[in-house]
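Hello,

Following up on my earlier ticket. Below are the two sequence lines again, exactly as submitted.
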Amino acid sequence: MKSILLCLCLCWLVGHQSLAQVEKTNPKWAAAIGSSLSWSGIDLSVRFVWCESRQNVFYIGPRLLLTNSYLPLEGPWGLVVGYRRNVLHSKRLTSFVQADYKAVFSAPYDPANLGGDFLNSIHEWHVSYGLEYSLGRHWSVGSTFGGGFYLERLTDLLEQKQNSFTGYSSQIQLFVHYFFGK
Amino acid sequence: MRSFQTNIAGSNRLFWAVHSSLLLLLVWGCQKVEPELAKTLDGTRIQILGHAGTGFPATSNRPPINSRESILKAIEGWNADGVEMDVQMSEDSTLWLYHDGTLATQTNCQGCVYLKSSEALKACRYRNVNGVNVGENERLIPLQEIIDRFAQRKQRPFLYLDIKDPFNCPLEEAPALYFSRMARALNRLVLRYNDEAKVLIETSNSLLMASLSKLAPGIKIIYRGQPGDNIEALLANYNLYGLGFNYDRVSREQIIEWHDRGLKLVLWDVRIRKAAVEAAEKSPDFIITDNIPLLQAVIR
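Thanks for your patience. The regenerated structure is below:
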């Protein structure tokens, strides 16, 4: 419940603070809401998007993991950082390649109160290909698909150490962009 | 000015779109167990056991079942209280971890485990089926490898051994002899683990239960229950430690009744949140799950 409420607040902040900035500066910003399915599960992310040029787009934002493999549940929190290179444009359609890094963090299960300062984490790196369809001046929708790697750092509380698990990961992503400005 | 108003209107639309989606998610998730119910009938914590390691494969769970990575991750990564493993015996009386009736369904080998030597089984590698084991090259492992590793831990995890009956290839000896050999092999490894209380043996095979009861009366046998089983007769004939059921085939009242008779209860087939909640609310002693973090979150 707390995680979802926090996510609501962040969404509100992203929308309104970005808008306030755009009114003062050159409008190259967008807010995006995206959902992706990858090794760590299904997530919801809110991103600040900076369009450096027509080709180069950077984004960063918090993400909330909605699943633990099967069904939605609360948390854990993480972040997503990415770079997107637009390749081809038509009037409404843009194709692009994208490289991103995602992470989530959570406290290890510790019913015996063994303690320790460890956090479990899942890190993912993906390269994706995507398409974005413009719905007008402000809105666009898009999707990507790609592949990459994951690294899980999980805590063995009894032995007070972290173990790594690695492997391949694939990613499917859907997003909605809202571009600020004229 | 007009542009500014357009932006404000757009921003409001964004605001409501986000909030509606998230409220929908809020309603969708978040089912939890009442803290008083998420305990055993003795008031202790329900023990979480990973099904064949971290569970059967899913989007975020791709090590092969019963593989070394899957089992180690359950204990050394997810901090499960124990792990369920499927056990079969080779022709030279070594116990191996493998689920299916024939090797061909999951590995690059052919035939049945109990007709193979340990040397032959060492060469078996899990295949890449439906994205499982991609790039991991996991191999079949003997139970002893896991026992030796976990015996070194400060606190030994529960080892829940699901004994598979030989049924897919013709057995080359009398069943009684086969299960007598298996009982001796199990007893050797239980002693090697050096913590008899932490090894549970699940079976519904009367020959194996009889052999184990005779050979090692202290060994902890969990009877794999089915609806309609005559539990009274079983209790009269074998030294049972507990009963195991699919979580939706047994009621809380039955669990209370059996608990009052001194039996431990194990529930399994817990994959999704609804199942995790239902199973935990029945207050068993152990839950075997395919989703360890989910069950931990539910009873946390």
